[in-house]
Input
Amino acid sequence: MVFIATLPFLVLMGLAGWVYSLARSNVNVVDATWSLFFVVAAWVQWWLLPDPGPRTACVLIFVSLWGLRLSGYLTWRNWNKPEDARYAAIRSRNQPGFQWKSIYIVFLLQAGLAWFISLPLLGAIAGSAPLNALDIFGMGLFLLGFAFEAVGDAQLSRFKSNPGNAGKVLDSGLWRYTRHPNYFGNFCIWWGFYALALGAGAWWTLPAPLLMTFLLLKVSGVALLEKDIGERRPAYTAYIKRTSAFFPWPPKKF
Output
């Protein structure tokens, strides 16, 4: 089965990231690896399928565009930076022996999640149904999400590069309408891939975008980032009160 055969490739990627993290005593690399799991999964699925369907080129181009951009951006952002606070906390909770535990706590966990969430990619590539309105909708949703994610990242990067903004909260551009334009963009991207899979007849891939949405909202996305941000940045409390957490919406007026 193509889906099962994809998993060993992602496991090998996870193990390579783990070896690299040992050399640097820093697991930040897993952030840059995350989107590449999906790029590899899609290309492996295409390679293994005997007769890919009419959506194949679209899926491969879109997932590669998204995955390479995001991986490149995170590599640049994290280059020579200390271990992210999220991973530092995980490291401290899992001593002694975190260097070994991180194989499954960090790297293989993410490889497994990416493998499952890649289901819509396989469904879209494997489906032979003619292109239809759902595909157009899926492409549009992907492009919307990609724009939100890329523009949001660029605006935040530019904001942080100005020393005068130290301690301040970005509340302009896309960040005026949602506290997490990059996460909202990711949400749109994966529901866009699901729409492509649905157009191909792969309705059964629905658990994948549902899981991604749950992760973005409740686990590694909004909930984790905002867990204690008000304590570290008091101005963020007012930002929370006036700005939508996820879906873009005009800010509240007080």
Q: What stands out?
A: The two ends are 57 Å apart (CA to CA). The chain has a mean pLDDT of 93.
